[in-house]
Specification:
This protein is mainly beta. It is 4% helix and 52% strand. The longest helix has 5 residues.
């Protein structure tokens, strides 16, 4: 079932607009578009940030300084922590790199045939997962490190997320595939996005029941992995990140999704410059933050859910323009009032 929350319904949602946010703007920001920000495992202190400026930066947000910066030689499209002292990164150079923070040394792990768009770590199976525009997903053993398998996808991989021992892949052509990381011999589920336009981001619920998918056309879908008809009746989609100006409704891509690990609520960030927090199970918007300088390109909650990293970078939705767009990462302390479902 595809339930659309229209603007009138959205205005009736529980909503609060924060005008004086408790947040910090990081120093030593990237020089070009920010592609991803990820918090360290079991930590609210360290944040990894990848960028089109060809660098990966490790920030200590408590000390408010940049600890480490290393380069790929080409724009970096995604990054992830393996453990507190190792990162994996990939981008337009088609190369997967591992970086040791303690030794300040990098290792070239392997390559794809085209740029690497997604890099994620699955702790349940202790495997690094990469998705590429070469229409493959590859698994990598982080202990070796080496490639442990390459798996064909129906089209370019735009986004992916791990959900326990399952992998949800979003490709071009609005396709969504669910794989079992314990047995990659076949696709567990083949789906088509319930949204009509190109998939932008997929993230999975911490309770492992399903995933949230966003598109370039200001919509978000809440989906469930259980294929039974009874459970599938619960899925729905809604409009968001739309602004009315001069009698016209402007529709913006929803670029980023991040889940709160404790409450199963999630944040969305759009090219309208806004961040919303949603209670997906009760179909409510919990709050909306102030408008950021430009598009929201990435979001990440810390492990304890007390901090949200917000990357603001112009994503060229309107092509080249004459405005100067800074690339900024904001660190916001979030409260239960903003993130906890209302009883």
């Amino acid at each position: 079932m595809d339930i659309h929350i229209n603007r009138d319904e959205e205005l009736n949602m529980s909503s609060s607009l924060s005008e004086t946010p408790n947040e910090l703007k990081l120093k030593n920001q990237p020089d070009d578009g920010i592609t991803a920000c990820k918090f360290g495992p079991n930590s609210s202190q360290f944040l990894l940030v990848s960028s089109w400026d060809e660098t990966v930066r490790l920030y200590d947000i408590i000390a408010d300084n940049m600890r480490i910066k290393y380069s790929h030689g080409s724009p970096v499209l995604d990054c992830c922590f393996y453990d507190p002292v190792h990162s994996f990164t990939g981008g337009l150079d088609k190369t997967l790199k591992m970086y040791d923070f303690n030794a300040t040394a990098e290792t070239v792990v392997g390559k794809h045939e085209a740029p690497i768009r997604c890099v994620e770590y699955c702790s349940d199976e202790n495997v690094i997962v990469t998705g590429s525009w070469d229409s493959t997903v590859k698994l990598w053993d982080p202990r070796a490190p080496c490639c442990s398998g390459s798996f064909a996808q129906p089209d370019k991989v735009y986004t992916l997320a791990v959900c326990g021992d399952r992998l949800v892949v979003g490709t071009a052509g609005r396709r969504v595939l669910v794989w079992d990381l314990r047995n990659m011999g076949y696709v567990q589920q083949k789906r088509e996005s319930s949204l009509k336009y190109q998939t932008r981001c997929i993230r999975t619920f911490p309770n492992k029941q399903g995933y949230v998918l966003s598109s370039i056309e200001g919509r978000v879908a809440v989906e469930y992995l259980d294929p039974s008809p009874e459970v599938q009746k619960k899925k729905y989609a809604f409009k968001c990140h739309r602004i009315k100006e001069n009698g016209q409704e402007l529709i913006y891509p929803v670029n980023a999704i991040a889940f709160h690990s404790k409450y199963n609520t999630f944040a969305t960030g759009g090219s309208d410059g806004y961040v919303n927090i949603w209670d997906g199970f009760n179909k409510k918007r919990l709050c909306q933050f102030h408008r950021y300088p430009t598009s929201i390109s990435s979001l990440a909650f810390s492990h304890d859910g007390m901090v949200l990293a917000i990357a603001s970078s112009y994503m060229y939705e309107n092509g080249e323009d004459d405005d100067v767009h800074e690339n900024l990462v904001f660190i916001r302390n979030v409260s239960d009032q903003e993130t906890k479902p209302k009883s």
